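Hi support team,

I've been running sequence recovery on a batch of backbones for a student project. Most finish fine, but this one hangs at about 90% for roughly twenty minutes before it completes. I'm not sure whether the input is malformed or the queue is just slow. I've pasted the C-alpha coordinates below so you can try to reproduce it. Let me know if you need the job ID as well.

Thanks,
M.K.
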Protein backbone atom coordinates (compact mmCIF):
# COMPACT_ATOMS: atom_id res chain seq x y z
CA UNK A 1 0.00 0.00 0.00
CA UNK A 2 1.41 3.40 -1.05
CA UNK A 3 0.19 7.00 -1.21
CA UNK A 4 -0.90 6.21 -4.79
CA UNK A 5 -3.15 3.35 -3.63
CA UNK A 6 -6.91 3.91 -4.09
CA UNK A 7 -9.51 5.13 -1.63
CA UNK A 8 -12.25 2.56 -1.08
CA UNK A 9 -15.87 3.66 -0.68
CA UNK A 10 -18.83 1.39 0.08
CA UNK A 11 -22.55 1.77 0.62
CA UNK A 12 -25.68 -0.34 0.68
CA UNK A 13 -26.27 0.62 -2.94
CA UNK A 14 -26.05 3.75 -5.06
CA UNK A 15 -26.66 6.38 -2.35
CA UNK A 16 -23.03 6.64 -1.27
CA UNK A 17 -22.22 8.11 -4.68
CA UNK A 18 -23.44 11.41 -3.16
CA UNK A 19 -20.49 11.10 -0.74
CA UNK A 20 -18.17 9.83 -3.49
CA UNK A 21 -18.95 12.89 -5.65
CA UNK A 22 -17.95 15.26 -2.83
CA UNK A 23 -14.68 13.34 -2.30
CA UNK A 24 -13.91 13.22 -6.03
CA UNK A 25 -14.58 16.94 -6.39
CA UNK A 26 -12.26 17.86 -3.51
CA UNK A 27 -9.57 15.26 -4.29
CA UNK A 28 -9.62 14.72 -8.07
CA UNK A 29 -6.16 13.08 -8.17
CA UNK A 30 -7.17 10.27 -5.83
CA UNK A 31 -8.04 6.93 -7.40
CA UNK A 32 -11.34 5.63 -5.98
CA UNK A 33 -13.04 2.23 -5.92
CA UNK A 34 -16.76 2.25 -5.15
CA UNK A 35 -18.78 -0.78 -4.05
CA UNK A 36 -22.56 -0.58 -4.40
CA UNK A 37 -23.94 -3.45 -2.31
CA UNK A 38 -27.40 -3.00 -3.86
CA UNK A 39 -28.19 -6.71 -3.54
CA UNK A 40 -28.40 -6.20 0.23
CA UNK A 41 -30.06 -2.77 0.25
CA UNK A 42 -31.46 -1.32 2.37
CA UNK A 43 -29.16 -1.92 5.34
CA UNK A 44 -31.51 0.11 7.54
CA UNK A 45 -33.94 -2.79 8.00
CA UNK A 46 -31.25 -5.32 9.01
CA UNK A 47 -29.99 -6.33 12.45
CA UNK A 48 -26.78 -4.89 13.89
CA UNK A 49 -24.98 -8.23 13.41
CA UNK A 50 -26.06 -8.42 9.76
CA UNK A 51 -24.86 -4.86 9.15
CA UNK A 52 -21.48 -5.62 10.75
CA UNK A 53 -21.08 -8.78 8.64
CA UNK A 54 -21.91 -6.93 5.39
CA UNK A 55 -19.56 -4.07 6.30
CA UNK A 56 -16.72 -6.54 6.95
CA UNK A 57 -17.41 -8.32 3.65
CA UNK A 58 -17.15 -5.01 1.78
CA UNK A 59 -14.03 -4.03 3.73
CA UNK A 60 -12.30 -7.35 2.98
CA UNK A 61 -12.90 -6.85 -0.75
CA UNK A 62 -11.61 -3.26 -0.76
CA UNK A 63 -8.49 -4.25 1.20
CA UNK A 64 -7.91 -7.08 -1.29
CA UNK A 65 -8.07 -4.42 -4.03
CA UNK A 66 -5.25 -2.52 -2.31
CA UNK A 67 -7.12 0.43 -0.78
CA UNK A 68 -5.22 2.72 1.61
CA UNK A 69 -8.31 4.14 3.34
CA UNK A 70 -11.99 3.19 3.45
CA UNK A 71 -14.96 5.55 3.53
CA UNK A 72 -18.10 3.97 4.98
CA UNK A 73 -20.50 6.02 2.86
CA UNK A 74 -23.56 4.72 4.69
CA UNK A 75 -25.07 6.17 7.85
CA UNK A 76 -26.50 2.81 8.94
CA UNK A 77 -23.18 0.98 8.48
CA UNK A 78 -21.28 3.76 10.27
CA UNK A 79 -23.58 3.98 13.28
CA UNK A 80 -23.78 0.19 13.67
CA UNK A 81 -20.39 -1.14 12.54
CA UNK A 82 -17.61 1.48 12.50
CA UNK A 83 -16.34 0.61 15.98
CA UNK A 84 -16.08 -3.07 15.06
CA UNK A 85 -14.34 -2.23 11.76
CA UNK A 86 -11.76 -0.04 13.49
CA UNK A 87 -11.14 -2.74 16.09
CA UNK A 88 -10.57 -5.47 13.49
CA UNK A 89 -8.63 -3.70 10.73
CA UNK A 90 -5.55 -1.45 10.80
CA UNK A 91 -6.59 0.57 7.73
CA UNK A 92 -8.03 4.07 8.46
CA UNK A 93 -11.84 4.36 8.26
CA UNK A 94 -13.97 7.45 7.74
CA UNK A 95 -17.61 7.18 8.72
CA UNK A 96 -20.69 9.22 7.98
CA UNK A 97 -23.31 10.07 10.56
CA UNK A 98 -26.21 12.52 10.58
CA UNK A 99 -25.09 16.15 10.90
CA UNK A 100 -27.09 16.83 14.06
CA UNK A 101 -24.51 19.22 15.55
CA UNK A 102 -24.61 22.02 12.92
CA UNK A 103 -28.40 21.81 12.75
CA UNK A 104 -28.90 21.94 16.53
CA UNK A 105 -26.27 24.66 16.96
CA UNK A 106 -27.75 26.95 14.31
CA UNK A 107 -31.47 26.32 14.85
CA UNK A 108 -33.46 29.42 15.80
CA UNK A 109 -36.63 27.50 16.62
CA UNK A 110 -34.70 24.90 18.64
CA UNK A 111 -36.54 22.28 16.63
CA UNK A 112 -34.89 20.21 13.89
CA UNK A 113 -35.98 17.25 11.81
CA UNK A 114 -34.02 14.18 10.85
CA UNK A 115 -34.96 11.81 8.08
CA UNK A 116 -32.98 8.56 8.36
CA UNK A 117 -33.20 4.78 8.26
CA UNK A 118 -34.48 2.67 11.14
CA UNK A 119 -30.97 1.23 11.58
CA UNK A 120 -29.45 4.69 12.05
CA UNK A 121 -32.13 6.11 14.36
CA UNK A 122 -32.08 3.00 16.59
CA UNK A 123 -28.29 2.84 16.84
CA UNK A 124 -26.34 3.47 20.03
CA UNK A 125 -24.02 5.95 18.28
CA UNK A 126 -26.93 8.07 17.04
CA UNK A 127 -28.56 8.12 20.48
CA UNK A 128 -25.28 9.18 22.10
CA UNK A 129 -25.06 12.07 19.61
CA UNK A 130 -28.60 13.32 20.21
CA UNK A 131 -28.14 13.19 23.99
CA UNK A 132 -25.68 16.07 23.68
CA UNK A 133 -28.45 18.39 22.47
CA UNK A 134 -31.06 18.23 25.24
CA UNK A 135 -32.23 21.80 24.55
CA UNK A 136 -33.15 21.00 20.95
CA UNK A 137 -36.33 19.19 20.02
CA UNK A 138 -35.42 16.55 17.42
CA UNK A 139 -38.24 15.22 15.25
CA UNK A 140 -37.12 11.79 14.05
CA UNK A 141 -38.65 10.13 11.02
CA UNK A 142 -37.77 6.73 9.55
CA UNK A 143 -37.70 7.00 5.76
CA UNK A 144 -39.55 3.74 5.12
CA UNK A 145 -39.38 2.85 1.42
CA UNK A 146 -37.22 5.76 0.25
CA UNK A 147 -33.97 3.81 -0.32
CA UNK A 148 -35.75 1.07 -2.24
CA UNK A 149 -37.45 3.59 -4.55
CA UNK A 150 -34.09 5.28 -5.20
CA UNK A 151 -32.46 1.90 -5.89
CA UNK A 152 -35.30 1.16 -8.33
CA UNK A 153 -34.69 4.44 -10.20
CA UNK A 154 -37.98 5.99 -9.02
CA UNK A 155 -36.70 9.26 -7.57
CA UNK A 156 -39.33 11.41 -9.31
CA UNK A 157 -42.19 8.94 -9.01
CA UNK A 158 -45.65 9.69 -7.54
CA UNK A 159 -44.91 7.09 -4.81
CA UNK A 160 -41.81 9.06 -3.77
CA UNK A 161 -43.71 12.35 -3.67
CA UNK A 162 -46.46 10.80 -1.54
CA UNK A 163 -43.98 9.30 0.94
CA UNK A 164 -42.00 12.54 1.27
CA UNK A 165 -45.17 14.56 1.92
CA UNK A 166 -46.22 12.13 4.65
CA UNK A 167 -42.78 12.26 6.32
CA UNK A 168 -42.10 15.99 6.03
CA UNK A 169 -45.52 17.50 6.77
CA UNK A 170 -45.42 16.71 10.53
CA UNK A 171 -41.92 18.24 10.71
CA UNK A 172 -43.12 21.44 9.03
CA UNK A 173 -46.07 21.57 11.46
CA UNK A 174 -43.62 21.12 14.38
CA UNK A 175 -41.79 24.30 13.23
CA UNK A 176 -38.41 22.79 12.26
CA UNK A 177 -35.93 25.17 10.64
CA UNK A 178 -33.32 22.51 9.77
CA UNK A 179 -33.80 19.14 8.11
CA UNK A 180 -30.91 16.68 8.49
CA UNK A 181 -30.64 14.00 5.82
CA UNK A 182 -29.41 10.94 7.72
CA UNK A 183 -28.86 8.58 4.80
CA UNK A 184 -26.41 8.96 1.92
CA UNK A 185 -29.18 8.06 -0.54
CA UNK A 186 -31.31 11.04 0.47
CA UNK A 187 -29.32 13.92 -1.14
CA UNK A 188 -30.72 12.65 -4.45
CA UNK A 189 -34.15 13.63 -3.11
CA UNK A 190 -33.23 17.27 -2.39
CA UNK A 191 -34.99 18.65 -5.52
CA UNK A 192 -38.16 16.80 -4.46
CA UNK A 193 -37.80 17.85 -0.82
CA UNK A 194 -37.34 21.53 -1.74
CA UNK A 195 -40.73 21.48 -3.48
CA UNK A 196 -42.33 20.45 -0.18
CA UNK A 197 -40.42 22.42 2.46
CA UNK A 198 -40.90 26.16 3.02
CA UNK A 199 -37.90 28.18 1.84
CA UNK A 200 -36.71 29.08 5.36
CA UNK A 201 -35.98 25.42 6.26
CA UNK A 202 -32.32 24.53 5.65
CA UNK A 203 -31.34 21.08 4.39
CA UNK A 204 -28.10 19.54 5.66
CA UNK A 205 -26.28 16.48 4.35
CA UNK A 206 -22.83 15.15 5.21
CA UNK A 207 -21.03 15.00 1.84
CA UNK A 208 -18.79 18.05 2.14
CA UNK A 209 -17.82 17.28 5.76
CA UNK A 210 -16.87 13.70 4.87
CA UNK A 211 -14.77 14.88 1.92
CA UNK A 212 -12.86 17.31 4.17
CA UNK A 213 -12.31 14.60 6.78
CA UNK A 214 -10.99 12.30 4.02
CA UNK A 215 -8.56 15.04 3.01
CA UNK A 216 -7.41 15.42 6.65
CA UNK A 217 -6.82 11.68 7.11
CA UNK A 218 -4.89 11.45 3.84
CA UNK A 219 -2.70 14.33 4.98
CA UNK A 220 -2.06 12.81 8.42
CA UNK A 221 -1.84 9.09 7.71
CA UNK A 222 -1.56 7.85 4.13
CA UNK A 223 -0.34 10.70 1.93
CA UNK A 224 -1.88 12.11 -1.25
CA UNK A 225 -1.71 10.48 -4.65
CA UNK A 226 0.94 11.86 -7.01
CA UNK A 227 -0.70 10.26 -10.08
CA UNK A 228 -3.26 12.23 -12.07
CA UNK A 229 -6.21 11.45 -14.33
CA UNK A 230 -7.06 7.91 -13.20
CA UNK A 231 -10.65 6.88 -13.79
CA UNK A 232 -12.71 5.88 -10.75
CA UNK A 233 -13.83 2.24 -10.59
CA UNK A 234 -17.42 1.27 -9.75
CA UNK A 235 -18.71 -2.20 -8.87
CA UNK A 236 -22.29 -3.25 -8.21
CA UNK A 237 -23.71 -6.68 -7.40
CA UNK A 238 -27.01 -6.00 -9.22
CA UNK A 239 -28.02 -4.59 -12.60
CA UNK A 240 -25.77 -1.52 -13.17
CA UNK A 241 -28.50 0.49 -14.97
CA UNK A 242 -29.54 2.76 -12.05
CA UNK A 243 -25.95 3.30 -10.88
CA UNK A 244 -25.01 4.29 -14.43
CA UNK A 245 -27.91 6.76 -14.53
CA UNK A 246 -26.95 8.33 -11.17
CA UNK A 247 -23.39 8.74 -12.53
CA UNK A 248 -24.83 10.21 -15.76
CA UNK A 249 -23.14 7.40 -17.74
CA UNK A 250 -19.77 9.13 -17.29
CA UNK A 251 -17.91 6.13 -15.87
CA UNK A 252 -17.62 2.42 -16.43
CA UNK A 253 -19.68 0.38 -13.97
CA UNK A 254 -18.94 -3.33 -13.62
CA UNK A 255 -21.33 -5.92 -12.31
CA UNK A 256 -19.52 -8.14 -9.80
CA UNK A 257 -20.54 -10.82 -7.33
CA UNK A 258 -19.68 -9.87 -3.74
Amino acid sequence: MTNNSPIGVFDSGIGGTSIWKAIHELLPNEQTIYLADSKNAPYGQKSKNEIIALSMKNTDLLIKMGCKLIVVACNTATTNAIQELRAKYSIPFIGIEPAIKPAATNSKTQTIGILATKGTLNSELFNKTTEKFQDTKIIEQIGHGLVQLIEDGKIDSPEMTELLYSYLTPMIEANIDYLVLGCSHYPYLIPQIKKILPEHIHIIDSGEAVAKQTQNVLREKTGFSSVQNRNPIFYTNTNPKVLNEILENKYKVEEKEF
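--
Follow-up from support: It reproduced on our side and the slowdown came from queue contention, not your input. The mean pLDDT is 96. No action needed from you.
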